[in-house]
Amino acid sequence: MTVTLQDCQKMLGLSIRGQPVTGPCVSDGWRARVATFLGREVEELGTRTSGVLISWLREHFGQCPQDADAETVGHYCRAWILHLFACVLFPDATGDTASWMWIHCLTDWHQAGSYSWGSAVLCFLYRQLCEACRRSSGSPSVGGCVYLLQLWMWSRLPVGRPEIMPRRPWFPGEPPRRQPTWAYIWDQVKVSHTRLDRAYLDYINEIDTLTAHS
């Protein structure tokens, strides 16, 4: 039992069909590529080659000017997508970097929607979980779309999940493609609590006693 492509599509609303998300992963010249993508030069911060700081994106693209022209609006939209990727869909274990790796798939707006982003999110999550299991530092962390992992655990495992409360009505008259995903069932919940010093042990014990009919 594990997170599947169907879970990714139903919970996040991402396409699991289309072109694979692939491309060059050469870091040479990444600042120039980001500058072209966002319309703003990226400051050099030491030897960082993984991408731009999320704090930098928030500082320079936090609020689009009211009188912005179409080109500027486009740059702010790209920055928003890059921020979404870095914080929700493809966060790395550092939690503070927006990777440049996805830029080549986002440059053409019309082409960007043709990729199988759901497959990419799931593969990235699997890889991050694998890397997290092999870390031995005193403060290990995990990357990937843990939001998806949390939703999947709540829907599949009766351990530590919140109690579902009556949902708020969705906006009436919205077309099907703008209806909420299956994850909306968790929009209103009553969060369960446990003692911090016993949470890990309690949850592990509950998981160990699960059966096929739990």
UniProtKB/TrEMBL annotation:
<dbReference type="InterPro" id="IPR019557">
    <property type="entry name" value="AminoTfrase-like_pln_mobile"/>
</dbReference>
<dbReference type="InterPro" id="IPR044824">
    <property type="entry name" value="MAIN-like"/>
</dbReference>
<dbReference type="Pfam" id="PF10536">
    <property type="entry name" value="PMD"/>
</dbReference>
<protein>
    <recommendedName>
        <fullName>Aminotransferase-like plant mobile domain-containing protein</fullName>
    </recommendedName>
</protein>
<feature type="domain" description="Aminotransferase-like plant mobile">
    <location>
        <begin position="1"/>
        <end position="208"/>
    </location>
</feature>
<dbReference type="GO" id="GO:0010073">
    <property type="term" value="P:meristem maintenance"/>
</dbReference>
